[in-house]
Predict the structure.
Amino acid sequence: MIYVTGDTHGQHDFLKLEFFAKRNPQLTKDDYVIIAGDFGGVWRGKTLTEDLKPYEALPFTVLFVDGNHENFDLLYSYPVSEWNGGNVHIIKPGIIHLMRGQVFEREGNTIFAFGGATSIDKFMRTEGLSWWALEMPTYEELDEGIANLKRYNNKVDYIITHSCGERALMYPPLRMRSFQTGSYPENQMLAYFEDTITYKHWYFGHYHTDGKLNDKMTVLYQEIVPLGK
């Protein structure tokens, strides 16, 4: 089985995974939970081993796209590996970072991953310590995503991102939030995929709320849902 959820922020929002594991004792490392950005488990080099232990103890494999609250210097220090058709950083055998612009094939599904977003609180953070400019997707990563999608004739089963396209911001439950926070370059970038990809469902996090925007888009935070639901 493959499930999707929203931000975990290291230990801050981790308990939902622990509760989910207890409610589903049948899960094994052959099952997957995808975190739609702001994983936050790769944050401090000095405490990395201890920070990752709770994730390693989970009975399922954790996959994640990157969000804006990640230590990108540390995350990108891992070697790039190939996993199920796309590039990844293998943090631990059961913890895998799905890199931007990649298409993965798993359990008969094709999944397009594209992380990254703007930290609206970066004015309160310190670059290189609690905020990294690499949080923003680049046009090189956009081009790589476009090229990878062409291999699938611009058709995938699922899209997993951290943020969302501009039009998604106009739907409840995001409409009021978008009026408060505004639109950012990644929203414009992701709108390109909304216009060009044929897909069954798109999941994203970032906005700290749960809800279906429409029949094809879901924003996640605390909920953990089966892929395709």
